[in-house]
Amino acid sequence: MIMPAFYIPHGGGPCFFMDWSPPDTWKALGDWMRSIPAALPAQPKALLVFSAHWEQPQFTLLSTRDPALYYDYYDFPPHTYELQWPAPPAPEFFDRVRQCVRAAGMTLAEDSTRDFDHGVFVPGLLMYPQAQMPTLQISLRRGLDPQEHLALGRALAPLRSEGVLFVGSGMSFHNMGAFHYRDNTSIEGATIFDDWLTKTVCTPDADLRNAALAEWQKAPGAHFAHPREEHLIPLMVIAGAAGAAQGKLAWHGRAMGAPLSAFSFD
Description:
- It is built from eight helices and ten strands.
- The longest helix has 13 residues, at about 25-40.
- The chain has helices at about 25-40, 95-105, 120-125, 145-155, 190-200, 205-215, 220-225, 235-240; strands spanning about 5-10, 45-50, 55, 60, 110, 135, 140, 165-170, 245-255, 260-265.
- The chain is globular and about 50 Å long.
- The protein has about 270 residues and is α/β, with parallel strands linked by helices.
- Strands 6-2-8-1-10-9 form a six-stranded mixed sheet, sandwiched between helices. The chain has a two-stranded parallel sheet with strand order 3-7.
- The chain starts with a strand and ends with a strand.
């Protein structure tokens, strides 16, 4: 059985675990992420996350024996620095990850000291609050070349048929200066890129999809939605891992005025 692959908007820092105005700012997205495990075709053997919040000179496997949490957000309420998600690592998959990457002629480094950043533990707390899911993390590569990240996804794709659930953790809109922090009124000009992204990801032809994603900077509204692309690049890994599967719009909503979209590949 092939596990699905998801690209999810992971919100703003620990946003799902604090008060907002309006109070339901992040509720719909949080509820959807909580619903993912029950919708899966089977219980995953492990979770493999590609977070926007980890970039390295080479693709890097987190091989820390007992990862703690890296609270890589700032000026949030004190209780958000006490969140816990002691998910176990998945060392039984380390060799398979290495084999897949090297078989594709790519380089994989390792980091045995890093902890899970909030692009991992925030969705993890929503999806698996008991922290029972063995979890793997692989970094993005500096330079954020879309083609390299599509290739990483293709290299790792066999793991989907071995029970590993792929999650690209980013944001489909990530212009920090444009968010409406006091209300949820629509951000002018924000929907044009979201519309393009949805149409592109959901196109039936995977080759056309990936070619368009590789040229995402030419899309309408691209640089407004992503002044820097680290929150979009996890989608490239997921699209590469999807193979010929057609993308689906798994969730769509709005938070702090921004249109946000999540995608799945079965």
